[in-house]
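Replying to the earlier thread about multi-chain prediction with a worked example.

Input:
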Amino acid sequence: MAYVYDDSGEHEELPSKEEVAARLSRWESRLNALYARIEKWLPSESGYVLDRSSRIPVNEPLMQAVGLAPGSLPKLSITHPDGSRLVFFPSGLWMIGGNGQVSAVADRLAWKLVDRGTDDAPHWTVYTRRPPIRSVEFDCDAFRRMLAEAA
Amino acid sequence: MKRFDDVMYAYLTADNGFATEIEREREAGRIEIAAELERLRRLNDQAYFVLIVAEFEQYVSDLALRRVEDGRRGQYGDRRVCSVLWQRIGEDITKLSFLDRVALLMDKGRFELAELNKLYRTRSEIAHGRALSAVVDVPNTARTVERIASLLQDAP
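Result:
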């Protein structure tokens, strides 16, 4: 029986607990790097308040399969002076078609970000919310459009 | 084959709805509800993945059957080979494995065949409840399938 657990294909054997833990650790580093980029993209003197102190629980199926204890990963909250918020949080590392995804959520809107790169060289993209559905580069312009929609 | 634009839009609308609800439940301290929504979100990914691959499989079957029918009438390929094949399968092209049906339409050396093999195996793992990587980039899968379907349609 093959276990499908990441985008490199199917695997006859599960990875070790240590391998899963190491990949999770690299995932946290990628998330922190992504959040740091987003912080730099925020318009200066805009009054936004950033918070990276919160963490969310993580307990993916593969972690459970290898007996790795549930953990936590960082999220990023951006609060506008008017109280509206835009929150980024990880929503899956082991995925088919990408190398991890992040959700961005505002009051009534959400976006899906997918890393199409590698652990060492991330390449973040974001899906358009309306047709035609396209995956576009998640850069400063894309982020600021998102921020404007979220306000 | 029809394009998956509406399917992708429906999927992203649902997926973004899950993300919004998960964040809301976490903020309210309802961690167990958020975890259940995460599980359902993965299930939603899998359902859309299987839907897309199943639609593609039907497309391949229709195209392969047409190719055999045309072949035995001498329009394509070797008429005798296609006639024998036709006698073996009757009109039930699914008597051939999925990859054999694809092989009727595409040269075996093409890298898209490896992509298809992977998609189909993943579909089988999900269908049998054995897939551990339950998160799927559904729109990316849809675009991959559309690209390969276009190649098959244009193949001589």
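Chain B has a mean pLDDT of 87.

Feel free to reuse this layout for your own posts.
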